[in-house]
TrEMBL record:
Zinc finger (C3H1-type): 264-294
Compartment list: Cytoplasm
Stated name of the protein: tRNA (uracil-O(2)-)-methyltransferase
EC number: 2.1.1.211
Role played: Adenosyl-L-methionine (AdoMet)-dependent tRNA (uracil-O(2)-)-methyltransferase.
Length: 297
């Protein structure tokens, strides 16, 4: 709608309509195919010659649509824009009627996704053309999307939470005696004993810390998962990661991943070497992280 000269490319993925999740209407098609037909229909309604292509990408959803030319002359742009407005309003009507089957609405089950309001035109204030209001109440995303996956939290704050949670887990199990260590017991490394639930961990953190984490997507769980070197989070329970139990890297791992792993080797300090009372569970040559600044690459 931005201009007559506009062209577009779209790779449909998640099943959404203009005002919420897309509702299926044709059981004879797969959900994906039905949604693709709907997206193509939007292009046709907007006056485009819609072309379909299948991308050569490693994804199950790789069907794309391209709109490079119009089906109408520039002089009819205002008329088509009114048609687009009516189509958008019909989709909103359809979404409302799905939840509330009120009298005066009719659903066509085999109309290629179109839903019409019977016997009425869209309200006058909702037939605005491009250049005024496209859709009343529509809120686009902010130009700069805020990062809220704990990645932008201050490093000192993250380090403090990691240390507090790790100490909580380590102190949950009895400390190994010196005699065990001297006796050559290879299992003497403190793994933290029983795991703790995320709720139990949260109960031991102060209110200010929890308040800061609540503003992030996933909160405490995301922060702990981000610190993969130290923690393992499974089914809502937190464990100290024991790198002795980690499977060796697969020889069939893609070349790109193997190269990235090799490039990252010894580029970060080993948290266990610095903070764990028993040090790292692995010898220096077997640990991917640096045991001291002299090993850093």
């Amino acid at each position: 709608r931005s201009s007559y000269s506009c062209c577009y490319f779209v790779l449909p993925c998640c099943f959404f309509d203009f005002h919420g999740k897309y509702s299926r209407r044709q059981s004879k098609k797969t959900q994906y195919r039905e949604y693709l037909d709907f997206v193509a229909q939007v292009g046709f309604v907007c006056g485009f010659h819609v072309e379909e292509d299948c991308l050569r990408i490693p994804s199950t959803k790789r069907v794309s649509f391209i709109g490079k030319s119009r089906t109408y002359p520039p002089a009819e742009h205002a008329l088509i824009d009114k048609q687009i407005t009516q189509f958008i309003n019909s989709r909103r009507t359809c979404a409302a009627a799905t939840c509330d089957r009120r009298v005066g609405f009719k659903h066509k089950d085999h109309c290629d996704g179109l839903c019409e309001e019977v016997g009425s035109e869209p309200p006058e204030d909702e037939t605005e053309t491009a250049g005024t209001i496209w859709m009343p109440g529509f809120q686009p995303r902010e130009k700069v999307e805020q990062i809220r996956n704990c990645a932008s939290l201050p490093r000192d704050f993250v380090d403090e939470v990691v240390l507090n949670v790790a100490n909580l887990l380590l102190n949950a199990a009895p400390q190994k005696s010196c005699s065990d260590m001297q006796g050559g017991n290879t299992n003497a490394w403190n793994q933290g004993g029983e795991s703790l639930s995320l709720r139990e961990v949260a109960e031991h953190l102060n209110k200010e810390t929890l308040k800061k984490l609540k503003s992030e997507y996933g909160g405490l769980q995301t922060l702990l998962k981000n610190n993969h070197q130290v923690f393992e989070v499974l089914n809502g329970r937190v464990h100290i990661r024991d790198w002795r139990k980690e499977k060796p890297p697969s020889k069939t791992k893609p070349e790109v991943k193997r190269r990235l792993s090799a490039e990252a080797f010894k580029t970060r300090l080993c948290w266990f070497f610095i903070h764990h009372p028993d040090g790292c569970s692995l010898p220096s040559e077997a640990c991917s992280y640096a045991h001291g600044t002299e090993e850093l690459r």
